[in-house]
Here is the input.
Amino acid sequence: MAPFLFGERLGHTIFDLDQTAVYLEAALNFIAHIAYRDGIIMFVSRNPATCLMIEDLAKEVGEFAHTRRWMTDILTSPLNTFGGMTRLPELLIFLNTLDTVLEPHVGTRDAAKMLIPTVAVVDSNCNPNRITYPIPGNDDSMASIELYCKLFKEAIHMGKAERRRQQEKKDTAEATAKATAEATAEEESANVRESASS
Here is the structure.
């Protein structure tokens, strides 16, 4: 995490916010694209203080959350876990990448095995190597987690709104094309009837 750190002051690590902004923008863009393509997004957190917030966020945006202990074969062996074939998420968003104080979250490893992209808030004591879109930042502060949740929610809403807008545009174009084709067919049949009667 050294390249993402600005320095240290009074025992607290300070992140380089210029780099955080760049990585955050890339992650939000990716989240919006997954939402636009109607992908399944799952929020993951083991921090008891943020569990309710994460579950509410997932409910608000119509996605999924996992805030309990991670079973090792949730992603790698869904047939055994769920008893049948199930669609795996297209994106995992980790609000903290540590399962305990020192252990990395098992979900990051499983997602890497299954080639599922990940977005994660990566604190100074975490390893960003398994994360597809790391966001260098503080994952301990409730204020920062609330900010990240708000940004994730906006990105998902924007992606889904754009998808609805494009679908409405497509439906309108198809309806117009169908109406035009029907009008042309009626006109041609009227012309054929006129020429047959004369």
